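Chapter review: from sequence to fold.
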Amino acid sequence: MRKAISLFIAVVLILVTLGILILSSASSTKSEGASYYWMRQLMWLAFAFVAAAIAARLDYRFYRRLAVPLACVSLALLVVVRLFFDPINGSHRWIKVAGFTFQPSELAKIAVILLFAWWLARYQRRLKEFIYGILVPFSMLALFAGAIIVEPDYGTTLLISSVAVCMMYLSGVSMMPLFSAGLLGVGGIALLIRMNEERMGRIMGFLNPQLHEQDEAWQLTNALRAFANGGQDGWWRGQGFGNSLQKYHYLPEAHTDFIFPILGEELGLVAAWVVVLLFLTLFILGIVIALRAHDDFGRFMAFGITLMISLQALINFAVVTGCVPTKGLALPFISYGGSSLLISGGMIGIMVNIAHVSTKEPPRSERNIFKDRTRKV
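The token string follows.
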């Protein structure tokens, strides 16, 4: 287990180091200055290291008492940012104070994980009952999803909802009511997208990027060009560090949501696949830590954190390669974003503590990934 912890930390360090390097190149053409973004990212990285160190030393079982208060604070901040702060790029996502910006939706990610881990562990024997297994969990999720989707932030809404539903499934909630409630939620989001002209434009751009190359599909087509440029001089080489063409205002958000195509353009396909494999390794190690967790609360929390980071990376990869419609989700540890980096650091620290406790104390319950759905309550 100690080897798994060491490898887990090493993978994260490689990702953040690679993130700083590629960010220094991707943001070099911005009007704020060549060093503005990566220097701020370094500052947030220092905060993230502190958060990770504190979380790694704090017994994860403490979060049982913190789950509900943190969820309330998170929901309050989501309401505050929607009501009292001006929109940026058409969305109420950022609280800006004294030159610093913070995204409450990032805090909501860990808040939802802690809340659901606490609930599912506390009422595990009653999860087959409709109230405890479906009504209350989906009501809690609806509060967060509703507060985030009105920002609007459809990508984070889908991400948090997917992680919460996966945690419920892994805990033993009955499949059919879970599937029905999930389908109802997806249908609601689809209806909202259908009623939103901008979101429908993204869908049409995804379905026919050539036809919408100059408007809705501009990001996607330039992301694909970046990958194509990276293979011009050999698929293993790329254009060379700092030599991206697409970062010169061809690819919007090149330092945030679409930083992965810049990495592929400059460092080549091999580097891009290395990043994918690093996230895959992180996912596998996270599952190992979850399976060996001391108790169900730690197990559900480790599963939730692993899924949150891995699924967000998977969605980002799918978006920038044209596999799914464009969504505003950053690539964890690599994209620019202080809030994301800080919360991710805290998540990594929690994972390290869960793994550390499991090396000292034997597990108190079974380690099955999927709970037995045939047993009677």
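Two observations follow directly from the output. DSSP finds twelve helices and two strands in the chain. Strands lie at 95-97, 100-102.
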